[in-house]
Amino acid sequence: MISVVLVDDQAVVRAGFRVILDSEDDLRVVGEAADGAGAVDLVARLKPDVVCMDVRMPGGDGLTATRRITTTLADPPPVLVVTTFDLDEYVFGALEAGASGFVLKDCDPEDLVSAIRRLAAGQGLLDQAVTRRVIGEFARRAPLPAVDPAVEDLLTAREKEVVVLLAEGRSNVEIAEALFIEPSTVKSHLGRAMTKIGARDRLQTVVWAYQNGLAAR
Questions:
Q1: What residues have CB less than 8 Å from 142, skipping those under 6 apart?
Q2: Domain region containing 66
Q3: pTM
Q4: pLDDT digit string (tens) for 89-102?
Q5: What's the rounded mean pLDDT across residues 72-97?
Q6: Where does a domain end: 80, 115, 139?
Q7: Which of 27, 103, 152, 199 is surrounded by the most beta carbons within 10 Å?
Q8: CB atoms within 10 A of CB 45
Q9: 134 with 148, same domain?
Q10: 3-state DSSP call for residue 149?
Q11: Which residues contact 211 (CB under 8 A, 6 or more apart)?
Q12: 48 with 70, same domain?
C-alpha cells in the first residue's frame, strides 16, 4: 500500500484527489494539509511514501515546504508537485528545492496515479512531458557553470557517461544501447553515481548534472 499526503489550500482539490487515489487498491491518502507549514509537520509525523504538493498556497508556500521536507527530514519521501502552470517560476524553485516530479492539476486521473506509483518505486518522472519541459527550461535559464575538478573525480568515467545520457532524457534501455552494455549494468552505475552525489532519484541526478556542468545545454 502506497501512503500519500495531499497538500493544497483548496479543500475541493484535496477532496477530488482523495476520491481518485482512494479508489485505487494500492493507494491510500493518510493525511491532508492546507498550507506548507502544516505539511512539513504532517509529513514528519505520518512518514508517507509520496507527498502531492501544491506550490502556491497562502500561509506557507509549497516551495519552502518542499525544501524543508527534502533537506531536514530523515529519509524524506519524494515530493510530487501538482501545479496549474507547467512553466511557472514556482515550479523552477520547487525543482531546485528537491521535487521529484511534476504533474498538472488538470491531468488525467490515470496520469496522477501513475506518477505517484512511479515516485513510490523510485523511478522518477523523466519521461513525463511536464517534467521534461521543466528540466529543459531550467537548463536553458540556469547559468552555465564550469566543471569542478572535484566533480570530475567524484564519478568514474562510465558513471559520468551514464549521468550525461540520463540528462539527455534517455531511459536505461536507451543508455544501455548507446554504451553497448546491459540495462542492469546501467542501473548499477546510476545507483552508485546517485549515492556518490547524494541524489535521491533520477530527476535530482539530472538537476545535479546541469548544476555541475556535466550536462550539455
A1: 210, 211
A2: 2-139
A3: 0.83
A4: 777 788 888 899 88
A5: 83
A6: 139
A7: 103
A8: 10
A9: no
A10: helix
A11: 142, 145
A12: yes
